[in-house]
Amino acid sequence: MADVDIDIKDSPFVESPVVPEQFDEDHVIKFRCHKDIECFNACCRNIDIMLTPYDIIRLKQRLGLTSSEFLKKYTYPFDFGKNSLVGVKMEPVEGCTACQFMTDEGCSVYEDRPTSCRYYPVGLLSTRRADENVDRASYALVQEDHCKGHFEEREITIGDYRKEQGVEEYDDHGRAWRQLVLKMKSAGPSIGSLSKTSLQFFFMASYDIDRFREFIKSEGFGATFQIDDELRQKLYEDDLELMRFGDRMIRQIMFGEETLAKKDDAYDQLVSRREEQRRIRDELEAEDSSDDT
Ligand code: SF4
Ligand code: SF4
Question: Does any ligand 2 atom lie closer than 6 A to the CB of residue 147?
Fold first, then answer.
């Protein structure tokens, strides 16, 4: 199964499975996938699936794992292209290309399968003009030789196929992040080269949501940002609230879109915390060296 977040311009070759046309929601496709089809599971035997933050939340909740545990066991990072952005893809079964969730009966996480799996064989084409803040959606069709669903006698519009596959909810929860990534990819020199810390923050707030929650609970965060108790409680308990908050923080850090108030004495507190850390470190080093003598 190819990753469906496609840039159609990247597929100019005649042998590409991507039909070189962009469609809207009203376009009718001929497609049906079902358990008795001869190619059942073929798409899940050869995966290339990028995950969104919402995909990760759904899967880690389903599996009863923390985001860190999920990322370690089921994903690997990849270079997103411009600005050293890092994305996350599903890690196949060791030594082959099959999805770790594939079983003889089909997908073992079907109700929580990622956006790409829901869309297939349709590809979402998100584009953003430099002078706009929103992305525009159009669609492509992926026709791979192994997929026999294209020969089934069912016609359906892309819009109805999205509804049938439960894509709308995934797109709603993924939209802000998708726009953020498009903005980062297209921002180029306006944000300069991103620091390692900013990129690590992007990774944590986007994908490793439970570690991000620990950050929100940390003394350093509390000393820097002003948030009310109601929001704080939601962030401690609700992954989706935290995902949206992560988006705000990334925008504030990387694009200066200030939506989070900082405490007036945040800088003084930061300096005194650093001094305290330095003092403790110096004391420990002094103790170590006196033990050695
Ligand atoms: S998550 Fe499910 S549908 Fe997606 S590739 Fe894996 S087994 Fe197939
Ligand atoms: S019809 Fe296509 S999507 Fe369905 S199982 Fe076969 S290869 Fe996968």
Answer: yes
